[in-house]
C-alpha cells in the first residue's frame, strides 16, 4: 500500500502543513511526495528531508504556476493509478484539486479528515464541526484531504531521493493575472502554537493593530472573525472558522469575539482558550478555559504591559 | 449568455443541530431549512451579471425532496428565470450530485455555472470541482469577485496566502465564497411573481445516472465537549496564566 502526497508550498517554501500530512499518512504505507510548480527545487529538498518520505517526485512547468486545478489534475490522473492513497492538506489547493481528480477517476473523495482509523476508515467533521462522521470506503483507492492542524508534524533529518517527472503536454486554461499576498512575519495560522484572534469589536483596522501587537509579543499567529474580515480590519487569509482556516493551537486568545457556530468550527482543536469580552454570556465566554470580562481597549494594552513586566518574549 | 445556478436546501445555518443519540445522523425533522448560504451568493452573482447585461437567462437547479421547491422559489424571487427540481428522497453523495448536474449542463449548455463553494450540512466543498471535471470545463473556486472580460471571466479567489485573480475562458464553472456580494432579500412583488415562473420537476431516476453511494457512513457522533473554565478578576491574573502557559510550551 503506497501513498502519494501532494506538497503544499508558496513562494518557494514548503508549507508546514505538508510535514503533518506526511506524518499522518505514513501509517498507511510508504510515502512519495509530489512537488509541482515552477522553481520548486528547494521545496523538493525540504520534502525529501521529512522522516517517512520514500521519494520525492518533482514536476516543474509554467503550467503549474499557482497550481491551477486543471493542470495539476492532468498530472495527478496519470500518477494516481500507481498508489492506494492520494492525500494532501485541506488547504485552498487541496480543496480545489482533490474533488476534481476524484470525479476524473470516478471516485468519492474523503475530505477534511481529522482522524485516520484504518486504511479505509476515517473521521471527518460535518455541520461546522457540530457532528463527526465516521466513513468507510471499499473503493480501489482513497483520495483524501487532511486537516493539518489535527496531526503532528513529521520530523526532519531524512534525505529521500528526488526524481523528476516530465509534464509534457500538460497545459492550463487558467492564467494568473494578480496575486495579493498578506505581508506578515507572523507564523503560519493553520499550524501555529499560539493564535491571537480579534473580532469586529476592535472597531477599525487601527484597532485591529492591538491584536497584532499582542500576537507579536507572544510570537503568535493572528486570526480574525468573518465579521472583522468583512469590515476590512483584517485580510481574508486570517479568517478562522467554517469558511476560513481551521486552527488547533495550544493556546487561543480570543478578543472581542462572540463565538458564533461558524467561528467555533475553526477552533475546536485548540487546547486552551482564553477569552476577553465585555459580555460574560457570549458563547465563547462560556466555553473559554479562562475568561476576563472587560473592555478590550483597556485590557489588551494592560495585558501587553503586564506580559512585558513578566519578561514574556517571543 | 446563459447562467445555471445549483442550489441546495440545507438545515438553516442559524440552527444549532442535534446529533441523534443512536448515531444514525443529525436530527432534521421539525428543523428550519433554507437555501445554503453559499448558494445564495451564487444566485445573487448570477442576478448581478444578468443586470449588468451578461445573462439573458438564469436557470436554477436543485436536487432533493419535493419540499426543495421552496429554495427554488427563493431563487426565482431573487431574479432567476426558471427552475428545475431533480426530485429524490435519497441523500446523494457529492459525486452523484455532480453527475446529475453534468446531465443538466449537457441539456442546457450554459456559459457559466455558478455553485456555492460548500454546503453547510456536509461541508464537502466538492460539487463545483467535480462538475468541472465531468464537463471538462475550467474552474474558478472560492470566488470573491467575478468580472466578464472579453470572451472569458476574471475571477478573484480567496486562497491560503490571500487572494489571486485568474482569467479563464468560457464556458466555465465558478464557486461562490461569502465575500462575493450581499444577497438581496426579494421584495414581496418578486415573491408573488416567482410562483408564476416555470418550474419543472423531474425524478432523479430519469437521468440514467448511477446514484448508489460509494462510501458507508458508519456513524455520526457529537464532537468532544469542552468543559467550562474559570473567570479571572484582573489583567494581572490573566497575564500570569498566559505567561505560565507559554513557558510550559517552551519547556516541551
Ligand atoms: C455560512 C457562514 C459561514 C461563516 N463562516 C465564518 C467563519 O469562517 N469565521 C467566522 O468568524 N465567522 C463566520 N461566519 C460569521 C459568524 O456567523 C459571525 O457573524 C461572526 O463570527 C461574528 O464575528 P464577531 O465575533 O467578530 O462579531 P460579533 O458576533 O458581533 O461579536 C462581537 C463580540 O465582541 C464583544 N465586544 C464588543 N465590544 C467589546 C469590547 N470593547 N471589548 C471586548 N469585547 C467586546 C461583544 O460582547 C461580542 O461578543 C459565517 C457565517 C455564515 C452564515
Ligand atoms: N443537492 C444539491 N442540489 C443542487 N446543488 C447542490 C446540491 N448539493 C450541492 N450542490 C451545489 O454544490 C455546492 C457545493 O456543495 P458541496 O460540495 O456538497 O459542499 C453547493 O453550494 C451547491 O451549489
From TrEMBL, chain A:
* Biological processes, Gene Ontology terms: fatty acid beta-oxidation using acyl-CoA dehydrogenase
The residue ranges of the Electron transfer flavoprotein alpha/beta-subunit N-terminal domain are 3-180
Name the source's superkingdom: Bacteria
Physiological role: The electron transfer flavoprotein serves as a specific electron acceptor for other dehydrogenases. It transfers the electrons to the main respiratory chain via ETF-ubiquinone oxidoreductase (ETF dehydrogenase).
**One Gene Ontology molecular-function label:** flavin adenine dinucleotide binding
Q: List, alphabetically, the InterPro entries matched.
A: DHS-like_NAD/FAD-binding_dom, ETF_a/b_N, ETF_a/FixB, ETF_alpha_N, ETF_asu_C, Rossmann-like_a/b/a_fold
Give the cofactor note text.
Binds 1 FAD per dimer.
This protein's record includes keyword Electron transport: yes
Which PANTHER family is this protein grouped with?
A: ELECTRON TRANSFER FLAVOPROTEIN ALPHA, ELECTRON TRANSFER FLAVOPROTEIN SUBUNIT ALPHA, MITOCHONDRIAL
Family annotation (SMART domains): ETF
Q: Which residues bind FAD?
A: 225-226, 239-243, 256-263, 277
State the organism named in the record: Devosia epidermidihirudinis
Identify the keywords attached in UniProt to this record, alphabetized: Electron transport, FAD, Flavoprotein, Transport
In which family does this protein belong, per the annotation?
Belongs to the ETF alpha-subunit/FixB family.
Entry protein name: Electron transfer flavoprotein subunit alpha
* Cofactors required: FAD
Q: Which CDD domains match?
A: ETF_alpha
Automatic annotation (TrEMBL), chain B:
Q: Which InterPro entries match?
A: ETF_a/b_N, ETF_b, ETF_beta_N, Rossmann-like_a/b/a_fold
GO: which molecular function terms?
electron transfer activity
UniProt keywords (A-Z) are:
Electron transport, Transport
User: Short name of one Pfam family for this protein?
Assistant: ETF
Q: Name the domain of life.
A: Bacteria
Q: Which cofactor does it need?
A: AMP
Question: What positions does the domain Electron transfer flavoprotein alpha/beta-subunit N-terminal occupy?
Answer: 23-211
**Biological-process GO terms, alphabetical:** carboxylic acid catabolic process
Q: What does this protein do?
A: The electron transfer flavoprotein serves as a specific electron acceptor for other dehydrogenases. It transfers the electrons to the main respiratory chain via ETF-ubiquinone oxidoreductase (ETF dehydrogenase).
Family membership: Belongs to the ETF beta-subunit/FixA family.
Subunit:
Heterodimer of an alpha and a beta subunit.
Name the record gives this protein? Electron transfer flavoprotein subunit beta
